[in-house]
Amino acid sequence: MKKISELDLPDDIRYAEDHEWARLEGDKIRTGIDDYAQDQLGDIVFVELPQVGDTFKKGEEFATVESVKAVSECYLPVGGEITAVNTALEESPELVNKSPYGDGWFVEVKLNDPSELDALMTNKDYLEKLKGAE
Amino acid sequence: MKEPLGATGLMLNEPLLWEKGKKGRCAFSLPRRDVEPRPLDRELTGEGPDFPDLSEVDIVRHYTRLSQWNFGVDTGMYPLGSCTMKYNPKTNEKQASLPGFTGAHPLLPADLCQGALRMMFELEQYLAEITGMDAITLQPAAGAHGELCGMLLIHAYHKSKGSQRSKIIVPDTAHGTNPASAALFGYRPVPVTSNEQGMLSPEAVAELMDEDTAGIMVTNPNTLGLFEENIREIAEIVHSKGGLVYCDGANVNAVMGIVKMGETGVDVMQLNLHKTFSTPHGGGGPGSGPVCVNKHLEPFLPVPRVVEENGKYALSENYPESIGKLQAFHGSFGVMIKAYSYICSMGPENLKKASQLAVLNANYVKEKLKGTLHLPYDRPCMHECVFSDKDQAADNVTTLDMAKRLMDYGFHPPTIYFPLVVHGAIMVEPTETESKENIDQFIEAFKAIAREAGQSADLLHGAPKNCKVKRLDEVTAARKPCLAG
User: Fold this and answer.
1) I want to staple A16 with a disulfide (CB 3.0 to 4.6 A). Which of A77, B89, B141, B324 is the partner?
2) Which residues in chain A come in under a pLDDT of 50?
3) Which of A43, A73, A89, A130 to mutate to test binding with chain B, by most B CBs within 10 Å of its CB?
């Protein structure tokens, strides 16, 4: 497993307590799980995603990931309507391990309230939090 | 024995039966036909199944070989936490194969199967005495089926009070099947976090418990191997809001004849005969998950129930509030005989002693290994103890690596990565049937593995080395499963 200092935590995205990330793209955000989460879970073998049109509040369970170790729930970092899901994960769940912020994204969400995005952590805050939990 | 348990020997390969078969070979002979041949209706005939032609010795060697590659409680220590892989005494099998039992048809009239009915009736009574509960159903097929039965009983109870509730509280130290069974039934499981001591706190339950909550599902002892010390207080909170307490009794091996579950506030609980009562577990199954209830839930138990009058036994459907049938017939009957045999051969004192020894053995393992492996909850445990791989993280060695390496030393690995509340969990349940010598060997093996982790991590990453099948590619197996030969 990676040491905290080896984690890839880009500065153009925001981070949630439960290790999901969110990136603003126009009036939508993309989200997935971050490098820390994919590394801790290990090889991901299955991702269950919601359907386009589903709506969730901030912090609601929207997806589950299954790794060789465990099944974990994922919580939507911001509330809104699902406008797209990454269907490539059906056949290739390993994309989450290979490229958590790129090809391994989970869903695209139309934001209800943009201030919810601002409330998420920056990469610096998130790094501090991870160090604190060590 | 001075030598280490794990060794290598001549390991023979074995082809699939289809590769072994040769047209015309046969392993049985039919009695001579004494009636005229009659052609079958064409609708009833067709291509036969694709079975290979084999001689008797081919078949015997094939399955003997497969069993030699296998590992079970008859070959060695199997400390699989939460599964209670205790030894299955052979007398159980002998009793279960008595012709009076094996020949009995489940639809026999009561007059012709008094022995079978009496065995079921008495087993219910024994289980009630061991757990301190009032009434039992033997129908559920295994633990999770028992949980579902418990949910049906809780629902029936609330319905009889004219109420309909939608939620159920499930702690993070419960068995994973608990929230699944509740959700399958239609209740919404509400998670509650255990405290720093790995215990459920009454405050946390009080915060969640309301009049829309049907009750709580507590695994006691819990999956950290700890006894829920606040269970009485928690039960009072749940009862005060009209809810019921379900106890997952999968871990009863720690408390047989010691804890009266009814007096701790438990209203309904399942037992796993294939864990606590020494019937085969896993591939040797099937399971059996009797459900025990307190008096106020008895009217709802599944039918038919075995009843006794003046020494005569009968099956009765006369319980108008019953949740109905859970099984085509009476449950895993053969398994019940084995549990009955175990209870009779042990007797009350020895059952209690089995629990005491199970707890003693687990505490011995915990104390002996706590300097070698990280022990997240350092307090007296029940029948199992939970370590983690935290101390090996610096060597880049994980729980999985150590578990795999343990096979090379001749032991079945413990349960790993469960319970989820412990990161990299290693859950050891030695059971009462292992001697001190066996447990010492297990402890020494784990210490040797921890030394190897510091010196040659690669050895662990590649383990097991001595098994027929080496390190499996679990990732590809899960991502691209091959479900047919």
Assistant:
1) A77
2) none
3) A43
**Which residue range(s) make up the domain with B431?**
355-479
- Cβ contacts (< 8 Å) between B478 and chain A: which residues? 43, 45-46, 66, 68
Chain B residues with CB under 8 Å of a chain A CB are: 393, 396, 398, 400, 417, 420, 474-475, 478-479
Query: Could you give phi then psi for residue A109, rounded to 5 degrees?
Result: -125, 135
B360 and B337, same domain (yes or no): no
Tell whether A1 lies on the interface with B, counting CB pairs under 8 A.
yes
User: For residues B422 and A4, what is the distance between their CA atoms, to the nearest angstrom?
Assistant: 19
Strands B312-316 and B167-171, bridge-based pairing: unpaired
Comparing alpha-carbon positions, the chain B residue that sits nearest to A47 is B479
The nearest CA of chain A is from the CA of B426 a distance in Å of: 12
| Chain B residue closest in CA terms to A89 | B479
Cross-strand bridge partners of residue A63: A74
Asked if A1 lies within 8 A of B474 by C-beta distance, the reply is: no
In CATH, which of 1.10.10.350, 2.40.50.100, 3.30.70.1140, 2.30.300.10 is domain A11-128? Answer: 2.40.50.100
What is the end-to-end Cα distance of chain A in Å, rounded? 13
Tens-digit pLDDT profile for residues B19-33:
999 999 999 888 999
User: What are the chain A neighbours of B398 within 8 Å (beta carbons)?
Assistant: 1
In a domain, B341, yes or no: yes
Contact B200, B192 (CB under 8 A): yes
CA distance A116 to A127: 20
**Number of domain units in chain B:** 2
Quick one: B329 and B285 in the same domain?
Answer: yes
Task: Report the CATH number at residue B399.
Answer: 3.90.1150.10
Q: Please indicate, yes or no, whether residues B302 and B404 belong to a single structural domain of this protein.
A: no
Task: ipTM value, please give it.
Answer: 0.71
With bands split at pLDDT 50, 70 and 90, how would you rate the model's confidence at B284? low
